[in-house]
Amino acid sequence: MNSFSFPEKGVAGAILVGGRSRRFGQDKVLLSFRGKPLLAHLCGILSPMVEETLIVGHPRPEFEALRIPAVEDIWPGAGPLGGIYTALISAGTPFVLVVAADMPFLTSSLLEKILRAREGQDAVVPQGPGRLEPLCAVYSRTCLDAIRENLEKGRNRILSALEGKKVFSPRIIVEGNGKDPFFNINYPQDYKKLEA
Known about the structure:
Blueprint: E1 8-18, E2 32-33, E3 36-37, H1 38-46, E4 50-57, E5 70-71, H2 79-90, E6 95-100, H3 108-116, E7 123-124, E8 136-140, H4 144-152, H5 158-161, E9 167-168, H6 188-195
Helix pairs in contact: 2-4
């Protein structure tokens, strides 16, 4: 299998930064990870792989240092589905690779695997250890109408919005003692595990 030549044409990247981290108690996307803010770490992985990168969600002044466009949610209060909708509307590409801003162990090899599978699909939502991972996935603009219809009806579940769409779910195996690439930080104890 030949390697891609990055940046991949026709694909934008979107990092969903969400709201104000109420569950965590402070802004988790600005937490330090490997000597830099977590958001900067993810930008460093995602940006070389795509034509353009967007930060989607509640803007913070600290984002300006990253020199990456920050886009406020078009559909505020709708959770990650609203963020995906905003990314698809805002990006100038047929596909958007969406990742959550609190996934410190994402790797370029995982994202490449997801990108490889996108042709002919409306979405590529990987199967991680135990469940589907719609916050590390590729979405086509062909999903826009279905997402909007769900948002209009107050149905904010991502997978519900993909019903009837052509969705491929590659299984991601975590080898040996490898870190779960879909591990995310929701609570202070999750960050403590990360520091350990």
